[in-house]
Write the structure tokens for this entry.
Amino acid sequence: MKAHCDAHSHRPESLADLTERLRARARKVTGPRQAILDLLRRQRHPLSNREIWRALPPSDCNLATIYRAIHLLERLGMVKRFDFGDGVARFELVREGDDGHHHHLVCTVCASVVEIADCFPVEWERQIAKEHGFGSVTHKLEFFGVCPQCQ
Amino acid sequence: MKAHCDAHSHRPESLADLTERLRARARKVTGPRQAILDLLRRQRHPLSNREIWRALPPSDCNLATIYRAIHLLERLGMVKRFDFGDGVARFELVREGDDGHHHHLVCTVCASVVEIADCFPVEWERQIAKEHGFGSVTHKLEFFGVCPQCQ
DNA sequence: ATCGCTGCAAAAATTTTGCAGGTAA
DNA sequence: TTACCTGCAAAATTTTTGCAGCGAT
């Protein structure tokens, strides 16, 4: 049984490549957008809009601009939304040509995050889709537990 | 390979049984709480706090009370939170002795919901836990697609 | 009679939007 | 130049909290 996603490399795409992707879509490469992209490309794990805001020097970007920029990047498929069940959306950069599909193991005590290579088997997903007549089926899967340090 | 959860019966627990569970935990059985429980026990699928509020006659319950009651029911394990990725928490009644663990297939167009019997294989979950030294690992899994009517 | 629960209203927190000026292309 | 972006501030949401009075037990 083969999962339909593998762990992806963590070597970050260069900032130049990222901004090029914006330009290619006729979007402007501005200071705030570069700051956000440059922050995200250094992160291994998803950040919320507010976390991005706090991580950036106050002069770099307004919180409203972050909301707007993240919306844009999400629409362009450059950023993917993850939900760890605490009501806060978090975002991760998606590598060129990738769909960003993967999962996390989140510590319910300290909120540390591990990226997971395994994935729900495609055959099951297809079967579930067929069984109910649904099309274009995907899934969201996240794991929760207590990390070694917090035990 | 066996999933570790099966579809559960949809026959709703009686309101009397539900309120008894409250009383057994030294919580008061009040009008608003009965109204909420009685509404949830008739639902097959999760409702948000606001949906509960709109579904109830205005005089039955204040929105703030619903937030408080749902928090309580969640703490008592009588209600389970689900997240369909749209930023709104939804809640489902959990049957006595059950842990409420199951998954949904949600239409991304009309938001209709189908309950899913399959589940992520326990062995994999255990392996993931072991691999990263995590304890008490569970998961959240939801499927998304386009239902027959919306295609 | 208690103590928990409720409604109401205000506060806090989160996300969206309008607008006027600035800037990438 | 000309759209597109941005900061700021206000608005719209969503969720939490304080408080005085009511009511389940």
Chain B has one domain: 15-145. Residues 15-145 of chain B form a domain with the Arc Repressor Mutant, subunit A fold (CATH 1.10.10.10). Residues 23, 26, 28-30, 49-50, 63-64, 67-68, 87-88 of chain B lie near DNA strand D (CB under 10 Å from a C1').
